[in-house]
Design a protein that fits this description.
This protein is an alpha/beta fold and 397 residues long. Helices cover 37% and strands 15% of the residues. α2 crosses α8, α3 runs parallel beside α4 and α11 packs antiparallel against α12. The longest helix is centred in the C-terminal third of the chain and has 23 residues.
Length: 397
């Protein structure tokens, strides 16, 4: 039988438990204590969860779906996307180790590396976001234990050659962890490309409705899985049954939402690229964009998140653009059903190798609205931007 598609798999569910007439979906089971029928089997996990921390029905089904999607042997749920990054790093690194990652790594991940891990004797080194695979590999030292890949990179959307990096790291005994949030576990399969651990913020497209926080971690190697499981157990991490249930509801429609939002995003990106106020659109599916070649080679789909580099401008102009919009909310995160905008130029200041952008950087997340309406809204933003540029050009009285 040919492998079923994700669309089918995510609907069919991980298991069809129970007998007789029953709801389609698993119940929300809120539990700390789990009762047992037999004192001799109270610790027997083959009878089901021994304690609430082991996760109840929805969480267990979601874990299983995530493992299948990612092509892992097992998957874990943690309370946020950030925890999905910090758990494997905690599990796999020891004092004296060194971790390599992109300078464009997700901001809170960078903070974890430079504050939490640094205080525990683990060094992070950052390579430029557009570094070639060869130069990333050239930075490996005998102390390098792990390479953290994020592709496309946060805010500037460079795409690393993950298959080449994973293969070379494996040869040299360096572990690889990839933050796969942009691909939502669908458009890129890190484990199939030789990466050891694939993590994603389920908060984004899997949840899909901007109403929960969760992270997913998938891996294949038993020793890696064991380290991660131990860390989750040692730390006492757990996800709420209600959140697991919502994420399970979200994952059923993930492929359809993801595809529809990417289609709209490409329409918006093409339109933006043609506007005279816009210097560049950072959206890998867009021909000519940063990351386009590797995206075409390695990815089967795209997120609906893009960077928009304006021609010049300043913070006031960026804010005027944002205030003029009514369909784009000003808010962080992405992957939900609704469109969002953020001003990202200030965040670039944290980088060691700041990119040389010609103007203000805005980030758009395209939701499920009609792209024609979103373009109409962005036209208002550009008008407000132009008005500010024009008034700046007028000589003072
Ligand atoms: C949002 C995000 C995270 C963190 O997810 P949270 O659930 O918000 O903690 C991690 N990595 C990337 C690339 C993200 O965009």
């Amino acid at each position: 039988m040919p492998p079923i598609s994700d669309r089918t798999r995510l609907i069919a569910g991980a298991t069809r438990r129970g007998q007789g007439r029953r709801p389609v979906n698993p119940p929300v089971e809120r539990a700390s204590t789990m009762l047992s029928d037999d004192p001799a089997r109270m610790q027997d996990a083959s009878d089901g969860p021994v304690y609430g921390l082991d996760g109840t029905s929805a969480a267990r089904e979601l874990r299983s779906l995530l493992a299948q999607m990612e092509g892992g042997t097992d998957a874990f749920l943690v309370p946020s996307g950030l925890a999905a990054v910090t758990v494997p790093l905690t599990a796999l690194l020891r004092p004296g180790d060194e971790v390599l990652t992109t300078d464009a790594v997700y901001g809170p991940t960078r903070r974890f590396l430079t504050r939490h891990l640094a205080a525990r004797g683990i060094t992070a080194r950052f390579h430029p976001a557009d570094a070639s695979a060869e130069s990333v590999l050239a930075a490996i030292t005998p102390r390098t234990r792990l390479l953290l890949i994020e592709a496309p990179a946060s805010l500037t959307f460079e795409i690393a050659d993950a298959p080449a990096l994973a293969a070379a790291c494996r040869e040299r005994g360096v572990l690889t962890v990839m933050d796969n949030t942009w691909a939502a576990g669908l458009a890129f399969r890190p484990l199939a490309h030789g990466v050891d651990v694939s993590v994603q913020a389920l908060t984004k497209y899997v949840g899909g409705h901007s109403d929960l926080l969760m992270g997913g971690i998938a891996a294949g190697e038993p020793s890696v899985l064991r380290s991660i499981a131990n860390t989750i157990e040692d730390m006492g991490w757990h996800v709420s049954p209600d959140d697991a249930w919502l994420a399970l509801r979200g994952v059923r429609t993930l492929p359809l939402r993801y595809e529809a939002q990417a289609r709209s995003a490409l329409t918006v990106a093409q339109w933006l690229k043609a506007q005279p106020e816009v210097a560049d659109v950072l959206y890998p599916p867009l021909p000519g964009s940063v990351g386009h070649d590797l995206w075409r080679r390695d990815f089967d789909g795209a997120a609906s998140l893009m960077g928009v580099v304006m021609k010049g401008g300043d913070t006031a102009a960026a804010h005027a653009f944002m205030r003029a919009l009514s369909l784009f909310g000003m808010g962080y995160s992405w992957g939900g059903f609704e469109s969002l905008i953020t001003h990202e130029t200030p965040q670039l200041a944290h980088r060691q190798h700041a990119p040389d952008l010609s103007g203000q950087l805005l980030r758009l997340h395209i939701g499920l609205e009609d792209p024609a309406d979103l373009i109409g809204d962005l036209e208002k933003g550009l008008k407000a931007w132009r008005a500010l540029q024009d008034s700046n050009l007028k000589p003072a009285d």
